[in-house]
Amino acid sequence: MKLKEKVENLLKAYDFSPKSYFSQNFLIDPKIIARLVEEIKIEKDDLILEIGAGTGILTSFLVEKARKVWAVEVDEKLCEILKKELGEKEELEIICQDIAKVNLDLLFSGKKIKVVGNIPYHITSWLLLFLVRKKWWKQMILTIQKEVAEKLTSPPGDKKRSFLPVVVSFYADVRKVMDIPPQAFYPSPKVTSSVVRLRPKKKTEELDEELFMKIVKAAFTSKRKTLVNSLSMKLKLPREIIKDVLLKVGLSEKIRAEKLKTEDFVEITKFFMEEKIAC
């Protein structure tokens, strides 16, 4: 039996209809699933967090190879399917809850976790910014909308450059692994997906991360404006102060936010800290 038929029969048996508002699109291509498992590089002592376990197709592969899997699923009906189809296993803990409400810091205190997930499109940006700042993860393999993957990997100067890729790239190295066509899912979404790999960056110096994010957010609020105008307007600081900051870190007063490297925003933040510029 083909995987698509298996998933369709499973959903029919449990009288379950995928909900578009939860972005419930289940992977049904065996070759892509095999590639995903290969990319995760599961070792016998690995601890894995799976976000959006769905029907448990990928979960079953994870449980076979890892020491422990925490499978998070917000849909109560899908949780019922997971529990009945996968059964009780020492290596598996099914968490029937919204990922935003799970106390991950408590759950993973003192642990190093690999994160895997087919991320619902409507929470992708929020979830990336939420997870990437955590100290307990050692790798993330995430399936996301291709458009978001292109943003995440956009270089300085790219029109897709925005708050999200700058902040994520401060915390992690990001690489696109592969694209997944709509027909690899059931039901098929309207867009192509991409798999991205994130690895945490080692921090070599202390930085006020809240200030860094505030500056980056202010910079991209009005992308058509120069950086001087955007920062002056949003941080409520005189333009002359912003010009002086850019001069000191070696940037033109006419530059726009999309042209900056993540390291440029770090240098601006450090100057704000050193000069105790309040904003």
TrEMBL record:
NCBIfam families: ksgA. Keywords: Cytoplasm, Methyltransferase, RNA-binding, rRNA processing, S-adenosyl-L-methionine, Transferase. Specifically dimethylates two adjacent adenosines (A1518 and A1519) in the loop of a conserved hairpin near the 3'-end of 16S rRNA in the 30S particle. May play a critical role in biogenesis of 30S subunits. Belongs to the class I-like SAM-binding methyltransferase superfamily. rRNA adenine N(6)-methyltransferase family. RsmA subfamily. It comes from Aerophobetes bacterium. The keyword RNA-binding applies. It comes from the Bacteria. GO terms for molecular function: 16S rRNA (adenine(1518)-N(6)/adenine(1519)-N(6))-dimethyltransferase activity; RNA binding. Its main location: cytoplasm. It is found in: Cytoplasm. It is an enzyme of class 2 (transferase). Its EC number is 2.1.1.182. Residues 32-202 form the Ribosomal RNA adenine methylase transferase N-terminal domain. GO terms for cellular component: cytosol. The keyword Transferase applies. This is Ribosomal RNA small subunit methyltransferase A. S-adenosyl-L-methionine binds at residues 25, 27, 52, 73, 98, 118. The gene is rsmA.
